[in-house]
C-alpha cells in the first residue's frame, strides 16, 4: 500500500535511508533507477546550506531525473532550519526530512541530530518552524530515545504529528546504542500506536526477510533501508518485489554488472571532480566487491589505482565474477 504525503503517493513503501557520505546524487539516482518509493539525501547542515557552503549544497543536490527525492536537514536553530527547508523546496525537493536521529558525536555535541530528543520542547520549535516555512510535506526521522531510560519517541511523535509532520521514521535503537547490537523493531510499535500519520521502520533491514520481520514487529506502514543497499542498489526493488508484488529488478551480473559499477564510478567523478571523486568512490567499489567475493589482488588493484582509466580497466575484470552475493 503506498504512503501518501501531501498530494503525492510513494509506492512501494520501501525507502532509501539518508546516510552521510553515501546517499549522494550518483547513488540516489542509481537506487531510484532500479526502483524505490522514496530516496533521501545525506544529512545537510542547515546553517551551512543557507550560507552557501559548496559541500552542503552538494549533499542536497537533487540530481536530474530523481523526482522522488527527500532532502534531510539538521540543525539547532529554527531560523536556519526554516530557511534551509525553503531553499531545498525551492530547488525541487518533494519532501523535507528533519534529522533527529544522527548519533554521531560531532552532531550531538552541537545539540543537533538525536540530541534533540533530550529537549522535546526545543525540538518541537524546530519542527514548527520548518512546517511553517514550506508547502511540501515535512517528515521526521528519529531514534527510540537518547538512552534506555528515556524512550520518548512515542511522545515526540505525537507532538510532531500535531505540529504538522506528515510521516515519521524510527530507527529501532537509542542514540547511546549507536549501531551496536540489534535494532529493536518491536520497540517501534508504541510509536505506531501514538500517531495516525504513516510510520516507517528503520534499522538492520537488509533484505526481504528482515523487512517482513520489521513490519510484523513494529506494525509500520513501510521500511527504510540504509546499509543493506550498500553495494546492492537494487536491494530496495528486490525487497519491494517480494513484499508488495512489484516487478522484480533485473539484477546485473557479469559484463552488465561491471558496466553498472563503471557507470556509477564515472558519475561520482563527474559529480565531485576527479580528485575527490576518486576518494569518495572507493567505499562504494569496496562494497560492490564485498558482495562479489572479489580476489584480493583485483580488489587491491581497484582500490589503489590512482588514475580513473586504470580503475575502469580493473573494474572490467569484475565481469568474470559470479553473480552478486545476496545480503545475509
Automatic annotation (TrEMBL):
Gene3D superfamilies per record: Aldolase class I (3.20.20.70), Putative flavin oxidoreducatase, domain 2 (1.10.1200.80)
Keywords associated with the record: Flavoprotein, FMN, NADP, Nucleotide-binding, Oxidoreductase, RNA-binding, tRNA processing, tRNA-binding
Chemical reaction(s) catalysed: a 5,6-dihydrouridine in tRNA + NADP(+) = a uridine in tRNA + NADPH + H(+); a 5,6-dihydrouridine in tRNA + NAD(+) = a uridine in tRNA + NADH + H(+)
Cofactor(s) required, per the database record: FMN
EC number: 1.3.1.-
GO-annotated molecular function: flavin adenine dinucleotide binding; tRNA binding; tRNA dihydrouridine synthase activity
Protein family according to the UniProt entry: Belongs to the dus family.
Protein name in the entry: tRNA-dihydrouridine synthase
Organism encoding this protein: Halovulum dunhuangense
